[in-house]
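Go through this chain for my students:
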Amino acid sequence: MGGKFGAPDKMIIGGKRLDGRKPDELRPITIKAGVIPSADGSAEITQGETKIVVAVYGPREVFPKHMSIADRACVECRYDMASFSTPERSRPGMSRRSTEISKIMAEALMPAIYLEKYPKTKIDIYVEVTNANAGTRCAAITAASVALADAGIEMRDMVVAVASGKVDGKLVLDMFEIEDNFGSADLPLAYMLRKGEITLLQMDGELTKEEIQELVEMNIEACKKIYAMQKKALQDKYSVEKKAMPDAGEENGN
């Protein structure tokens, strides 16, 4: 959460937030699968003004070989913000924050992957934030799950992630930049819907036990909606590919 200098007097007016949403309303979300043909799997997500592209490579051989794990695949994630993704131009290369989010993302995604089916291999996940307006780690996890599925990697479930928080004393879902900077609390959550398992839960700021429970429930309800968007992104990609494939008669010149 950010400091209070420059904060608006009110961020919720007449039951509506500054961007016009209700407290429990998601930003507009679009997800596309297969956006990078050269990657084994890829996805793009737009969530409000936040935009992220994810590419997955693997499972592939580990170099040097002694870094491999005998009974499962290892997962490496690289989260990076493009220098033009925020008004303040960032330095090229991995920042301390990027390194931390990379680790958090890998830990949130690994429970969903059948790692034991890919021993001695590595799965690389590359995340590029092209426009940042809050919620980037959660949006990146959501897109990375779609990219992993697009790569044909066997998964127990897809992971969905979203953050909620506290603004003007009220609990809100999916904060945008002003709320993220000047709100009093933030609670990101990643979730596997079919398994009912939380793979990431963090908190920044002060919340009561009851508020935490309410935000967790709010996040999970939102995850159900985003999960449907993940599935549709994959269905849309493969329905387009199927239409583009010639039938057996065409292949044989009949």
Q: What stands out?
A: The mean pLDDT is 92.
